[in-house]
UniProtKB/TrEMBL annotation:
Keywords: Hydrolase, Protease, Serine protease, Signal
PROSITE patterns in the record: PDZ
All copies of domain PDZ, residue ranges: 99-167
Protein name per Swiss-Prot or TrEMBL: S41 family peptidase
Keyword Protease: yes
Upper classification of the organism: Bacteria, Pseudomonadati, Pseudomonadota, Alphaproteobacteria, Acetobacterales
Length: 466
């Protein structure tokens, strides 16, 4: 997730050399603790300098001996990116061009295919396709592994290099080779690049005009404004007769932290939304809700699945902890870390994991995800399929630190008796396959709407724990 609204953070570290004089003494010598600490620090610095010299030696050897001439900048940028990607799956280096592309993307417009990706085992792994983009229209799915681009293997490419190859001019074509879990043979997909202007909020009144449906596809600079417009428009269209809201965060890969905070605040009147804890205690932050609920205190159901990540999980976690909404679907992705984008003048920027975030109850969802209050599977096949394509499976994923502090239990749901039992966990035998153009085939959405109507009938005024 891109952190702190893209504001730059600059940290300077001064290295001070220390010199020590040793004197002779008789008998055992016990160094004072502070002298011992200085000695260890000096020893650590010496080892750091030795390793930096090693890097320089290898760089010179590559320049002199590699089979073909190398570009100094490309080699050093690859080394920097390797250092960052070796930390965790979400830290990386962006050269000047990639940084500009990322800034354009967070403003809600970019060129390419429309997929949120990570890297796994040398391949490009799809976190989620963005609605109404070439990738979504071609049938790219979360968990797909992109193994070749235009017939060339992605093995050996950095994630950014692979992304650069997938971007291009509008109208140009590209061929992806995909390995999909459960498929016997690789899939060959031909796509045409477009200027990606994802409609960040899609909304409509469901049948009966009493339930509002809003799908958020990502969290960019436009998300909160788009959500507010969606809610206001649906309240007008229904003549203020809405009984509840379904907020669909399925396959929403996340985005900006400040947008996640604002969207959460739209549904809350008070209390903590999210907090972050960094390496140093003084860098911890906390965001609290301000009075004002844009729904007018309506019942809310939030839909999540394995493609709901990062900012989506912040929103779902905040609304779940405050019992402001019922979370429905399947367990989310489990990305509980914050990345800060730090511009480097003239040389792009680094995206560095700088903190873990915590829901209002103090729990980290890192590697765990948001567990829905009511589980509803999209297909019957999911019932016997193992959970996969989650944060915990990524190489070098951060550990979860819930065991380091006490976490109070969540307050009860306080739903009318028997209401949750009315929700079906699995689609019936012979149910039609999901078709995005036919809402009646979306089993999770249909169960959410049925539940919401029954909820508002049994309990017209929401009584949520704050």
């Amino acid at each position: 997730m891109k952190g702190r609204s893209m504001k730059s953070r600059l940290r300077t570290v001064g290295v001070v050399a220390a010199a020590f004089a040793a004197g002779a003494t008789l008998g055992p010598l016990v160094a004072p603790p502070i002298v011992s600490a200085f000695a260890q620090e000096a020893s650590g610095r010496a080892e750091t300098y030795r390793l930096l010299n090693l890097f320089g030696d290898i760089f010179e050897r590559v320049k002199a001996e590699y089979v073909e001439p190398v570009n100094d900048r490309e080699v050093i940028e690859s080394a920097i990116n390797g250092m960052l990607q070796g930390l965790d799956p979400h830290s990386s280096y962006m050269n000047a061009r990639s940084f500009r592309d990322m800034q354009v993307q967070t403003r809600g417009e970019f060129g390419g295919l429309g997929i949120e990706v990570s890297q796994e085992g040398g391949y490009v792994k799809v976190i989620s396709p963005i609605d109404d983009t070439p990738a979504a229209k071609a049938g790219v799915k979360p968990g797909d592994l992109i193994t070749h681009i235009n017939g060339n293997s992605v093995q050996g490419l950095t994630l950014q290099e692979a992304v650069d190859q997938m971007r291009g001019e509008r109208g140009s074509s590209i061929k992806l080779t995909i390995r999909r879990p459960g498929a016997e043979a690789p899939l060959e997909l031909s796509l045409t690049r477009e200027v990606i202007r994802p409609q960040v909020a899609r909304f409509r009144l469901l049948e009966g005009n009493d339930v509002g449906y809003v799908r958020l596809s990502s969290f960019n600079d436009q998300t909160d404004t788009a959500l507010r417009n969606a809610i206001a428009t649906m309240r007008r269209q229904s003549n203020n007769a809405l009984k509840g809201i379904i907020l669909d965060l399925r396959n929403n890969p996340g985005g900006l932290l400040d947008q996640a905070v604002q969207v959460s605040d739209d549904f809350l009147n008070q209390g903590e939304i999210v907090s972050t804890r960094a390496r140093r205690a003084e860098d911890a932050q906390r965001w609290n809700a301000k009075p004002g609920d844009i729904t007018g205190d309506l019942h809310v159901v939030v839909l999540v699945n394995g493609g709901s990540a990062s900012a989506s999980e912040i929103v779902a976690g905040a609304l779940q902890d405050h019992r402001r909404a019922v979370i429905m679907g399947v367990k989310s992705f489990g990305k509980g870390s914050v990345q800060t984008v730090m511009p480097i003048p003239g040389n792009g920027a680094i995206r560095l994991t700088t903190a873990r975030y915590y829901t209002p109850s103090g729990r980290s969802i890192q590697g765990l995800g948001i567990t829905p209050d009511i589980e509803v599977l999209a297909t019957r096949e999911e019932a016997n399929a193992p959970l996969r394509d989650r944060e915990a499976e990524l190489r070098r994923a951060l550990r979860n630190d819930n065991d380091t502090h006490e976490i109070p239990p969540l307050p009860p749901l306080n739903l009318p008796a028997g209401l949750a039992d009315q929700v079906q966990r699995l689609p019936p035998e012979g149910a039609p396959s999901f078709d995005p153009t036919k809402p009646e085939t979306d089993f999770q959405l249909q169960q959410a709407a049925k539940f919401l109507r029954a909820w508002t009938t049994a309990e017209p005024q929401r009584r949520a724990a704050r």
